[in-house]
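Entry type: protein chain
Record version: 2
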Amino acid sequence: MSTAPPVDPATIADALAQLRSYRLPEPVDWWPPAPGWWLLSVLVLGVVVAAAIWARRQRRLSAASRQAQHELAQLRRQLDVNGDTAGFVRQVSALLRRYALAQWPARDIAGLTGDDWLAFLDARGGHGEFTHGVGRHLADAPYRRTVDIPVQPLTELVERWIRHNRREAA
């Protein structure tokens, strides 16, 4: 049983007629974005720029390594053709110096000669093979008239050093 008083339908119609129609708000514009979106876009832009700089540096370092390895292979082919071991060792030494100058500041490398140069090579991945191993020939072989050294171990040492220092300098 309902305790509400009876409602006259005419009263309901009058009350509904007095209501105003509702008004929709203006649609939300997409521009300008909220401050959080600005912050996010600046952050994303910073990450993209940092990634581009890193990728460019990696590509440059990798290109120097690839070029040095290609040139070493070319020197080896020339040695197979002409048999000039002294010339090969001289050119390999120059190749190592050019590669080192591409990877590190010139002030650290330009003045190094003889045992200091070999110690530099050992300190950066030579593991003693330049001062006490087959790499020792890089210091004195270019100045000898005839050179009888094992070329294959020297070539492998130089290849390893170039690969190692591509990763180290990066």
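Comment: The chain has a mean pLDDT of 88.
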